[in-house]
Amino acid sequence: MNYWPTLRAKLALLRSKPEQALEVLRAAAPYELGEPSFSLYNWPDLYPVYVRGEAYLAARKGSEAAAEFQKILDHRGIVLNEPIGALAHLQLGRAYALQGDTAKSHNRPPDRLGLRHIREYQAELFQKRKLSPGSVANRLAALRFFYIKRTQEGLDCICKRAIACWLL
After folding, report:
1. Is the pTM of this model over 0.70?
2. What are phi and psi for residue 106, nearest 5 degrees?
3. How far apart are alpha carbons 126 and 143 in whole angstroms?
4. What confidence score (pLDDT) does residue 123 get?
């Protein structure tokens, strides 16, 4: 019986009322990890978790949203082949980006972030977070230092040239 609160919460999200959606979804919380009822259509019990994660994203609460999407990934046996299983990966990345954790948002350790990821991060700092140029320069200087150290440890010649061009 968790589908009515989920549908009401989705409607609240469509009306840009994330707090109302979170309130409505409290009724479904005790049943979200239970076993679905037997019927022609087996409504997966983790849809309320997914919609709650969306509501936290809409409310700009990244850590709570990440916890909800991680719950879906931790219980793949309940989700089965529903689309929320795949979408949880995307939304988890968005939650990490909302928290400001670039490495986790790209699902890579910091030493595996490429130049494209750094450029996306730079654009995010300027456009979405609206940081001053000085703040952005400090953050990028730390990343450049990291890449210079990495190149000295044995990156191939092409990557060294790309980083040198980027530093100019």
Report:
1. no
2. -95, 5
3. 16
4. 76
